[in-house]
């Protein structure tokens, strides 16, 4: 009786804290549930006669989500269980997305490293049969660098200026028409862009196959990605920065150049690199417009030229052990090339980003 009277005399805040306290799972509970789910998924997969480890993994992921929800509901309550279930789904989705990437990287590195050496990087396939060992990809690497660089020089300024117009100046029917066509161009297949350049540049104007023709097709594929990514980054720049600059009497073009673009340079650079990464692996436009060659052609404006995606396709199509090894090595160099571009872009973005500290 005296204990009840003391509880009634306690402040309301203390009583409220007592009502809000509840049991919680220990920190090791989630890893333990994950390990148990993997074991259960593998055991049930074996018992069911499933030979695919992908099926085992999906079953283990499902068991993990359901077990986390059930155990959390039992210990912590339904509200906390819903939060834990959402977190479990996010982790499972992340793992399901990262596993194929790691698997692809491991297979490419393990198979491509066999023939990847300085000789392979500094020699072409001139005088080497596709079915025989030897040769290299210098001609293809040189062609890819030149074609991608030309495409970026064409598409990046046009895409950047288009995005600036849409965000800073556009608003009428012209801006709506440009937005519509940018959305349409985003879904254009690469073969359609190649056929367009083939019909105009090669057949109508009479130019022959060249690396520049391939760059034109790649620029068509790159432009909408640059426009969309740059447009979103410019929209994230606070309007207060623009208004402060304009209030000081700075012209609008100078505000865009000195305030808006430096603020969004990190996102813009990342968008341009994503667009470059997208076009670097395209094969169809190169096959139509560049044709490919075993020789080293440093002039992208005249004559057939090689590229890494086309080189990988041609070598893998031969089907011999030597050619397939060269194809894997070419794929590894292509991945390393894209990764290097992204690292350079991040370095430039960090260098040009506005300083926030003292």
Walkthrough of the structure:
The protein has 358 residues and is mostly helical. It has helices spanning 2-9, 12-20, 29-48, 53-75, 78-112, 118-122, 138-169, 173-186, 190-204, 211-235, 239-247, 252-280, 284-289, 308-318, 321-352. The longest helix has 35 residues, at 78-112.
Summarize this structure as a short list of keywords or feature phrases.
15 helices, mainly alpha, 358 residues, flat
**Tell me about the biggest sheet?**
none
Rounded to an integer in angstroms, the radius of gyration calculated over CA atoms is 29 Å
Strand residue percentage: under 5%
Element string (H = helix, E = strand): HHHHHHHHHHHHHHH
List the helices and strands and how they pair.
Blueprint: H1 2-9, H2 12-20, H3 29-48, H4 53-75, H5 78-112, H6 118-122, H7 138-169, H8 173-186, H9 190-204, H10 211-235, H11 239-247, H12 252-280, H13 284-289, H14 308-318, H15 321-352
